[in-house]
Amino acid sequence: MADKKKKNLPPEAQKYQAFQQQREIKRPVIKNCLKAFLVGGIICCIGQAISTFYITFFDFTEKTAGNPTTATLIFLTMLVTGFGFYDHIAQFAGAGTAVPVTGFGNAVIASAIEHRTEGFILGVGTNMLKLAGPVIVYGVFSAFIVALIKTILLQWGGL
To answer: What average pLDDT does range 93-121 have in this prediction?
Structure first.
């Protein structure tokens, strides 16, 4: 809390704020960042291995291997989430599992699993897309803006 706001608090509230700060558990930020970095890196290494597999055995190029690699990662994440292992990994790694595309797959399937008792249409279908819909909309919108800026800069640079 800012010092200016602390001065406006009554003396009892100021004492409570000081007491609360003494009792507050300090978060191990460096340790959490290292765990997130390592687990996120492992996920990316798995993705690279899948991409190399597609390039080697299915005659994809580096450009064309991206889409099946992403789909495979999401599928594997959904399997791991369905068996209940992803929550343990995410609890350990934090943002290391949320940032890669696997976090998106986990969020979608976790919503579907949570609402499966409400039926396939109103439960699974509706709640699964509560997160996926905004992610897709903002992803497409961001891609449009980047492409528009790139097009304008290329046209402007060509003058």
So the answer is: 85
